[in-house]
Task: inverse folding
């Protein structure tokens, strides 16, 4: 059983971490949420559909993030999180880095569930079914909301582009 | 924020309704293009339309740039500290798969003790003989000792039973509680009557 669990950890830890990092913008909190999500996975592994482990894990991770965000004071919302993400890509040019930084800030400005949708679908490239499962939305809702989110991002992008 | 997506006008007020409808239609086509849902003919139609409509052309370019930027965002690798924590989960949580109250008698509910006591009591009572009068008469000392043991057992079970009644009521169900208590009480009462008859 622990062998299967280790395989899940290996496959999904980066995605869970990435989602938590995007949503919380705080490394320590993101780490706590991920750990809690995987402990829940360990404790409930027998009752979870094996085909939906990833979606289940993303849902639990996101819910953990949202719980923490709700407990935060409004002033704590703004963070300094994106510095690490942008500096770890030295192969891109300055313009690309700026675009990446801008995009991460733009994603950060999106409300829920748009932010999670963009991260899960456009950044992590999960399937529509997995995204719908993780966010407890219908496929139609996922498409409509995702289109709205992208449109918002496009409009933001148009404002900063020459 | 786009929690209320419709709170921001999609187009400037001076644009006519017909233009909005056209753009909204192209917006759908654009989304379908991004999802890879357009066939070749539909793609060609979109290209032709974009060549004649600067707004649509700009929207397509922006969508492309956005998609490229999104694709370039790396999936952030989990830090080593998190990897170590996750790797330790099976070892650290293995023991917790068995409830603590089964491991530690301090946290074991009284009804578990009571349930465990039933077969022990039944066995002890069976050693004292069947419900019919025994062929060999016990000595007075044996009867006295049996009465003392029974009194102790009864006292214990009565004490446990009070707690059991409360706990079973919330954890198992009232029916099981009644069955356990009734069976225990009946067994004890039978034995007491038997002892009385023998003493008489």
Result:
């Amino acid at each position: 059983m622990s062998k299967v669990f280790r395989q899940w950890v290996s496959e999904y830890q980066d995605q869970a971490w990435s989602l938590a990092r995007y949503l919380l913008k705080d490394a320590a909190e993101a780490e706590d949420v991920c750990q809690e999500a995987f402990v829940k996975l360990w404790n409930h592994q027998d009752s979870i559909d094996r085909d939906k482990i990833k979606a289940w894990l993303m849902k639990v991770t996101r819910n953990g993030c949202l719980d923490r965000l709700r407990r935060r004071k409004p002033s704590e919302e703004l963070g300094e999180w994106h510095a690490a993400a942008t500096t770890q890509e030295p192969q891109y040019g300055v313009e690309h880095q700026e675009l990446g930084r801008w995009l991460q800030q733009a994603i950060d400005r999106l409300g829920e569930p748009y932010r999670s949708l963009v991260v899960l679908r456009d950044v992590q490239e999960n399937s529509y079914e997995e995204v719908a499962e993780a966010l407890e939305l219908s496929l139609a809702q996922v498409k409509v909301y995702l289109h709205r989110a992208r449109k918002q991002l496009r409009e933001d992008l148009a404002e900063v582009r020459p | 924020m786009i929690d209320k997506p419709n709170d921001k006008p999609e187009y400037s007020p001076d644009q006519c309704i017909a233009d909005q409808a056209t753009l909204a239609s192209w917006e759908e086509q654009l989304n379908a293009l991004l999802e890879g849902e357009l066939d070749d003919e539909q793609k060609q139609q979109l290209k032709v339309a974009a060549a004649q409509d600067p707004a649509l052309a700009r929207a397509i370019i922006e969508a492309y740039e956005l998609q490229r930027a999104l694709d370039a965002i790396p999936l952030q690798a989990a830090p080593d500290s998190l990897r170590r924590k996750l790797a330790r989960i099976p070892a650290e949580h293995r023991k917790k798969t068995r409830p603590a109250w089964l491991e530690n008698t301090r946290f074991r509910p009284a009804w578990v003790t009571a349930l465990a006591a039933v077969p022990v009591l039944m066995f002890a009572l069976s050693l004292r003989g069947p419900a019919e009068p025994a062929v060999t008469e016990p000595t007075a000392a044996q009867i006295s000792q049996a009465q003392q043991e029974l009194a102790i057992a009864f006292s214990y079970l009565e004490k446990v039973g009070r707690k059991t009644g409360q706990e079973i009521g919330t954890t198992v169900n009232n029916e099981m509680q009644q069955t356990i208590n009734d069976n225990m009480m009946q067994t004890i009462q039978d034995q007491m009557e038997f002892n009385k008859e023998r003493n008489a």
User: Anything to note?
Assistant: The two ends of chain A are 55 Å apart (CA to CA). Chain A touches chain B through 50 residues (CB under 8 Å). Confidence is low (pLDDT under 50) at residues 75-92 of chain A. The longest helix of chain A spans residues 2-24.
